[in-house]
Amino acid sequence: MSSADKTTKTTAQQSVDTLRIPSLLVPSIIKFAIRMRVDFADALNSASVDPALDNLVEETISVQQFVGLIEALTQKLDLPTVGLYFGESFAFDYIPEMETFLSTCQTPRQALRVLKWATPLLAPFVTLDLKEDDSQSMVEGIVDVDSLIPHEAKSVVVEALFAVVNKFARVLIGESFTLEGVYFSHDLLGTQEEYEDVFRCAVSGGCDYNRMIISQAVLDMQLQSSMPQLNRQAQEMLERRLEKFNSALLFSERVYSLMYQSPELLTAGLEEVASEFNMTGRTLQRRLQQEELNFQQVVDRARFKRACDLLHDPNSSIEQISDALGFSDRRSFTRSFSRWSGLTPSQYRKMMPTSRRTQKASS
Fold first, then answer.
1. What is the pTM assigned to this prediction?
2. How far does CA 31 lie from the centroid of its chain?
3. What is the pLDDT of residues 75-132, one digit of tens each?
4. What is the DSSP string of 144-200?
5. CA-CA 20 to 30 A from 209: which of 58, 152, 218, 312?
6. What does the alpha-carbon distance between residue 263 and residue 58 come to, in Å, rounded to a whole number?
7. What residue ranges define each of the domains in the chain, with the CATH number in brackets?
């Protein structure tokens, strides 16, 4: 194995060893399997997942266990588009305050703030962001640990998440709600009709990105079910739930998550990052050393992840990405990215699915 291969494996292995997924998704998967009349007991055993619901909030499962459940569900149903059906049936059974927040928002734009809590609590390996330009708004989805999740499982996850967003938008706005377009980076797993039945708009596969296009007028429409006081209470409960989950994470994961979510910290020094945790730089280093890591390794991991996100955007040049990550020039960024992944930024970008469509989701 070459040194570049070893670097790639080390970077990926660090992510898969530390990233945990809340068990909150497990009962939803089991409930869906029962609804589809699938015997799922052996799949749970194979993945070493305990279906007991005693401690759902605190318990977590690994990325490998989650992938095992998704693959088993897809195989048992012999249904490539299982993600669409799972998303359409999904409910926040064990996070009632999330549904309360959604149903009491003033506008759909405010409702999309739910992504701030939903992704870390249900799918922390996915980034869902609202992006806007002068003409349109879009929800973009990126799977954070591409190298750790097989392509088929990743496609199922993205389709399920988009189906969930679409479902709750329709619940909030009404059956008249329609998206302006849906774009997947993978080839469509089923027929065009299956996708258009769910999303009620044109759906394209093999694109440069995963995006749902939403009218800005729709995002800003006033919702009749708005209840500001109840909405604030739901927000506070969600913040407490997320804080409780974060406190159970490895310290290195908390540092990584903060730096990834706050890109300005990627160029900050040790002391500045440590101050975010109300500790000295020396204490932060000691806490990381207890997990056999150092500060620079966590910085590199967050920078690498942010770089991969930006490289998924075909409209971002290598120079722009270098600047965004705080590198002095493109050459310095290329050296670091090659050290992290074994590939240059250009090589990494060429390995990603390229659009075979002339239609783009953004101008």
1. 0.70
2. 22
3. 999 999 999 999 999 988 888 999 999 999 999 999 999 988 888 888 877 888 888 8
4. TTGGGS-HHHHHHHHHHHHHHHHHHHHHHH-TT---SEEE-SSPPSS-HHHHHHHHS
5. 218
6. 28
7. 3-219 (3.90.1520.10), 250-351 (1.10.10.60)
